[in-house]
């Protein structure tokens, strides 16, 4: 991932996408990315449900979310634009960041449809950016060229997104808003707070109301969702790091290793060490 470190952005194709998406085990991306599907399909599991991406759709993946690859079709054709947060923040982009941010947070982990014309234009932009990034020809202003091409891509995405933004936000019901805020709060606080009461208080509603609305919208209770996110975080550490279980316990906000092991075994019917052994 040389380009990502050197320029702040990198383009992956269907042939190299495995460098970003691990197979057969949960993973959390190090950087945010746009994943575009031109043909075929890919199926991912994330915290709450399965996501199937088909032709003419895209998704915004997020380092705060744990994913698991389920399947990829033989005719799968895609581009993934991965970028560092500080890189996009440093660019002098003038589009309404708030509107784009709201939309991205709402649509996070949901396949967003493209028109064929929009996809064609973005696909060409992404391929040209990839050509520049991959070029071994000496370019005096290569860094500046990459920045401008990535800015063009961002403006294209902002334009496409703005077409749907107002409708998407205005059509959000009160119940959807409660779930949306809960999931956002959870993504930012799950390492420190596993109590439903904490998330209900942040919206000034009762725990019973929060749980009822979340259950109705997702099919899972608020406590089940909190547990599944913590368990997925634990799986990532257990199968992709050599951290001692005691250290993982601390990172995940447990008071001690026993509390973590008890929590893990309660939900997976195996101990953290037994789970880790599956991937050794």
Automatic annotation (TrEMBL):
Q: Which GO terms describe its molecular function?
A: DNA-binding transcription factor activity; sequence-specific DNA binding
Q: By its UniProt entry, which InterPro entries does this protein fall under? A: Homeodomain-like_sf (IPR009057), HTH_AraC (IPR018060), Tscrpt_reg_AraC-type_HTH (IPR020449)
Q: Check the record and name the Pfam families matching this protein.
A: HTH_18
Instruction: Look up the domain of life of the source.
Output: Bacteria
Where is each HTH araC/xylS-type domain found? 176-278
> Any idea which UniProt keywords this protein has?
DNA-binding, Transcription, Transcription regulation
Protein name per UniProt: AraC-like DNA-binding protein
Instruction: State the organism of origin.
Output: Epilithonimonas xixisoli
């Amino acid at each position: 991932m040389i380009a990502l470190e050197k320029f702040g952005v990198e383009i992956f194709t269907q042939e190299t996408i495995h460098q970003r998406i691990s197979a057969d085990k949960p993973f959390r991306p190090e950087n945010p990315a746009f994943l575009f599907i031109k043909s075929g399909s890919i199926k991912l599991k994330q915290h709450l449900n399965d996501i199937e991406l088909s032709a003419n759709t895209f998704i915004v993946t997020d380092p705060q979310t744990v994913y698991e690859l389920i399947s990829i079709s033989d005719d799968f054709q895609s581009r993934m634009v991965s970028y560092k947060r500080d890189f996009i923040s440093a660019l002098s982009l003038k589009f309404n960041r708030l509107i784009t941010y709201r939309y991205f947070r709402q649509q996070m982990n949901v396949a967003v449809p493209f028109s064929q014309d929009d996809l064609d234009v973005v696909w060409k932009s992404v391929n040209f950016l990839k050509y520049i990034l991959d070029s071994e020809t000496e370019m005096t202003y290569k860094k500046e060229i990459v920045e401008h091409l990535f800015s063009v891509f961002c403006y294209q995405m902002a334009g496409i997104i703005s077409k749907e933004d107002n409708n998407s936000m205005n059509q959000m019901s009160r119940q959807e808003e409660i779930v949306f805020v809960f999931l956002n709060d959870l993504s930012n606080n799950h390492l420190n707070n596993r109590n439903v009461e904490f998330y209900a208080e942040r919206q000034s509603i009762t725990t019973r109301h929060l749980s009822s609305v979340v259950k109705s919208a997702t099919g899972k209770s608020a406590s089940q969702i909190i547990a599944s996110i913590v368990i997925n975080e634990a799986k990532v550490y257990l199968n992709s790091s050599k951290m001692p279980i005691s250290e993982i316990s601390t990172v995940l906000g447990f008071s001690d290793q026993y509390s973590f092991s008890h929590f893990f075994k309660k939900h997976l019917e195996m101990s953290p060490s037994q789970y880790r052994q599956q991937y050794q």
